[in-house]
Write a structure and sequence with these properties.
about 210 residues, alpha/beta, four-stranded parallel beta sheet, 9 helices, about 50% helix, about 10% strand
Length: about 210
């Protein structure tokens, strides 16, 4: 049932022309405050529950500010001592967005890359394709996969997301220097690690300006 009170014309106007309003149009007309804030796709249940609690505690103005940054394609790094706490904080921020959001862990990305072929439609570069397009993406547990493929998979994915100005939220127990050590310990070569850190750092700096 539609609450005609929030629409820009009286109810009899819509009754006369028989207009059908889609849920997306209804949300746009009624305003962001009435959006059904959804947990990002593929978020683990525990993280989703924690994120929902964090989201509920945010003020309306804080939600609007975060939504505006995400709409501008901001990259934001959430570092916490606890990996689940970091993931929940990033996920709660993603919930403020008016656009589709998804969740993936760095280990998932590395595993998908590792399972790809060298060439063809199932190549390693295509293994991260499903994570390229969500307007908002949470990447959790950066540096914690203990897989050498993590760095190259992230470079492939993040290079594309930055070119298209798609918002990316990173969750980790590491900061810049410590994540570099973790990735190199896992077997990533130092050149790839430097390229990844430079890529993320540039995106996060741009995000602070949005």
């Amino acid at each position: 049932m539609i609450d005609y009170e929030g629409l820009p014309a009286p109810r009899n106007y819509y009754d006369t022309i028989g207009t059908i309003i889609t849920p997306e149009t209804w949300q746009a007309l009624h305003g962001p405050g009435c959006r059904d804030h959804r947990v990002p796709e593929h978020t683990p249940k525990l993280i989703a529950e924690r994120a929902s609690t964090i989201f509920a505690a945010k003020t309306g103005s804080a939600k609007e500010e975060e939504a505006a940054r995400l709409s501008a394609g901001a990259w934001i790094w959430y570092a916490r001592d606890d990996a689940d706490e970091a993931a929940a904080a990033a996920t709660a921020a993603a919930m403020t967005s008016r656009e589709r959001a998804a969740f993936v862990s760095a280990r998932e990305l590395a595993t998908e890359w590792n399972g790809g072929e060298l060439y063809g439609p199932n190549s390693k570069a295509h293994s991260v394709d499903r994570h390229r397009n969500p307007p908002v993406l949470v990447i959790a547990d950066l540096g914690a996969s203990s897989m050498r493929e993590e760095a190259i998979a992230l470079i492939e994915l993040l290079g594309d997301r930055r070119r298209h100005k798609r918002s990316t939220l990173f969750a980790s127990t590491f900061t810049g220097k410590s994540i570099a050590r973790a990735l190199e310990t896992a077997g990533s070569n130092s050149e790839q690690v430097r390229k990844l850190i430079d890529l993320i750092s540039a995106g996060v700096r741009e995000g602070r300006q949005s």
